[in-house]
Amino acid sequence: MKLKLYTPIAFAALLAFSACSNQSTNAETDTAIPVSVEDIKLGSIEQTINTTGTVTASEETTLSTETDGNYVLKVNPRTGRKFALGDMVEKGQLIIELEDKEYLNGIGLEAKELNLKIAQQTYDKQKSLYDKGGVTLSELSSAQVSLVDAKDAAELAQIQLEKMQVRAPFKGVITELPTYTQYTKVASGTEVVSLMSYSKLMLEANLPEKYINDLKSGQEIRVMNYTLPDDTLHGRVEEISPAISTDTRTFTTKMAVENPGMKLRPGMYVQAEVILDRKDSVVVIPKDVVVSSRRGKIVYVVSKGTAEEKQVTFGYEEDDRVEITSGLKANDRLVVKGFETLRNRSKVKIIK
């Protein structure tokens, strides 16, 4: 009798519990998760190699005197004062001159130039007479020998005169200028000035061997330095060593960096990106919206108020962006915020 009494009561309780459970489940299903979305647009992405290194000047030299003489530091026409550290000089510009009257008289440049002029006139006269049959070939040849000798003597005198001058072999900046008292004698072989050109810089880097077949001369590079956060310099790959180091498993490359404002200085430590390839009009998304799971890499897109799980395949990668080669297309509404708690077919509410 007791069993018959309790059975209807238990059954009613079970029905009530079931109804409550269904209401709870429906409430959870109907709750929309707030998310932010972006419409996918086709963009560009690059395949790059990142490296670091120290930039050096493209040209530098230390000039020494080639003869004895009294030291004379010349005036810089740009500043109106004698040349100083940091001054820009043009190729061929006279920086220092040596004075030595005895040496200058020994060269005898004026006399040799005059002798050359006479020898040229004599040869021209003999050539005219020979053409008319007035002199023999031997006489003409003798005049020609005298002309050649005179030219050699004048050229040698000019070379000896140039040894008294210290000129810039290229356009650059004075980086060292030892102090010598004006008009005091300095010996031959004395270092008197150092120059450096850094409107173009060189960067030597060792890259992993896996890139040796991807790297080509002429490929573009970008160069950054922490002291110049708003300036990116550009350059190109110039030389590539075919040899792989057995110790580091790397190969050496040399890259030229254009430095038009000369803001980057030799000796600075830089970061560089070598651009191996570039793709345009491809699907590119932020890396941080990709979720890794046992099924692979997935993202979520919104369609008709519901989140749809999409498995994607990566192509080229950058620091914060990645190319998607399959799984997404242009104009898909990609979830960029709120994706952490999503499941496939989750109800979503789009917010800004």
From TrEMBL:
User: Where does the CusB-like beta-barrel domain start and stop, copy by copy?
Assistant: 203-273
InterPro entries registered for this protein in UniProt: Beta-barrel_RND_2, RND_pump_MFP, YknX-like_C
The entry assigns this protein to a family as follows: Belongs to the membrane fusion protein (MFP) (TC 8.A.1) family.
Tell me the keywords, alphabetical order. Coiled coil, Signal
List, alphabetically, the Pfam families matched.
Beta-barrel_RND_2, YknX_C
For the YknX-like C-terminal permuted SH3-like domain, which residue ranges apply?
Answer: 282-349
Q: Cite the GO molecular-function annotations of the record.
A: efflux transmembrane transporter activity
Query: Got a GO cellular component term for this one?
Result: efflux pump complex
Name of the protein in its database record: RND family efflux transporter MFP subunit
Q: Where is the signal peptide?
A: 1-27
Q: Which residues form a coiled coil?
A: 109-167
Return the PANTHER family for the record: MULTIDRUG RESISTANCE PROTEIN MDTA
Decide whether keyword Glycoprotein is in the record: no
